[in-house]
Write a structure and sequence with these properties.
Blueprint lengths: L1 H24 L13 E5 L33 H10 L3 E8 L5 E3 L20 H4 L29 H7 L4 E6 L4 H11 L4 H5 L1 E5 L1 H10 L4 E3 L1 H14 L13 E5 L11 H9 L3 E5 L13 H4 L9 E4 L2 H8 L1
Helix pairs in contact: 5-7
Length: 325
């Protein structure tokens, strides 16, 4: 009986030490504040926003915008310029292949929602897309008025135009398709850039194109649903020890705010661990069901830890940047 008691005491002592180690090793109490403001990522530049109520993948968001507060349309040179001027550190935009093998900067899978033509970007050359009115379908009053109709002609840029216009700026490029060939073609395009420009870019999207791009450009920071799982699942399993899985290195993570507190070391120790692995952490609003949800008001920011210094996803850089400036 005494042996059993001694054994139990030893087990209890070991467990207590283990629990104490886990608590201390993942506590932020002894982490020095970085003193750095969070990295601000402007989704689609400074663009028209819309209600997220009952939204689906097929919803035409141009038909549900709020009354316009500024003249910018998403994924345009002017919207990106305004976002950087407002205080964005990174601007996110979307790319699609064109008929003549270029990459057009445009959000939707199809053209019918926002523009005055139908089909996809693959049905048109880049020159033809320059004649399209990308502001044609926007309305804030169920079609009574269209405030941007006629004002968006010539405003759809190519990827080349964007990177030439902002040679020293940081971007997050979204590959909208799930075609691995697009990943390879994008890798071919990006590989012709200078090393400095490449270092200022990150790419995310479907598993297939991102996997293909990463094989061609191993040093490019990328992200997909598969890469997030490959990092976070082993991190949840062993991250409490401080060990960093190789799958978490040289990457980017978009972490929903509802999931973030369950990660070992959240917030600052987690961010520091990922930063040491050259992985960028971006927190998005909500539970992950809609990765376009952002922190779009000063009130939203109150939900973040006061010492958070990772990245913040926002659809309203004009409202968020002044809080940190």
């Amino acid at each position: 009986m005494n042996r059993k008691k001694k054994y139990r005491r030893k087990v209890a002592a070991v467990l207590a030490i283990l629990i104490l180690f886990i608590a201390v090793n993942n506590s932020n109490l002894f982490v020095q504040p970085s003193g750095e403001a969070p990295l601000l990522l402007a989704h689609r530049g400074l663009a028209q926003t819309f209600t997220m109520d009952n939204i689906t993948n097929d919803t035409c968001t141009a038909e549900r915008i709020y009354p316009p507060e500024y003249p910018y349309l998403e994924n345009t040179i002017s919207s990106m310029k305004a976002a950087f001027k407002a205080g964005a550190d990174i601007v996110e935009f979307d790319v699609h292949l064109t008929k003549d093998g270029q990459f057009a900067v445009f959000h939707d899978w199809t053209l019918g929602c926002r523009t005055n033509v139908n089909g996809t970007t693959k049905d048109y050359t880049m020159a033809e897309l320059k004649k399209v009115d990308i502001g044609y379908g926007y309305t804030a009053d169920q079609g009574q008025t269209y405030p941007f109709r006629g004002k968006g002609v010539g405003m759809m840029p190519s990827l080349t135009e964007v990177l030439d216009h902002f040679p020293n700026s940081s971007f997050l490029i979204n590959v909208k398709s799930s075609d691995s060939e697009e990943g390879r073609l994008l890798a071919s395009f990006l590989s012709r850039l200078t090393k400095k420009q490449q270092s200022q870019l990150a790419v995310y999207g479907g598993d297939e194109p991102i996997d293909a791009l990463k094989k061609e450009m191993p040093d490019m920071r990328v992200m997909s649903k598969a890469s997030i799982k490959q990092c976070l699942l082993p991190y949840v399993a062993v991250g409490w020890t401080g060990y960093m899985p190789n799958s978490c290195k040289d990457s980017q993570l978009h972490i929903p705010e509802k999931i973030a507190p369950w990660l070992w070391g959240w917030p600052q120790k987690f961010v520091n661990r990922m930063k040491n692995a050259d992985t960028r952490v971006i927190v998005v609003a909500g539970n992950g069901s809609e990765f376009s949800s952002g922190f779009d008001s000063a009130e939203d920011l109150k939900r973040l830890p006061s010492d958070y210094s990772g990245g913040i996803w926002t659809n309203r850089i004009d409202r968020i940047a002044p809080v940190y400036q």
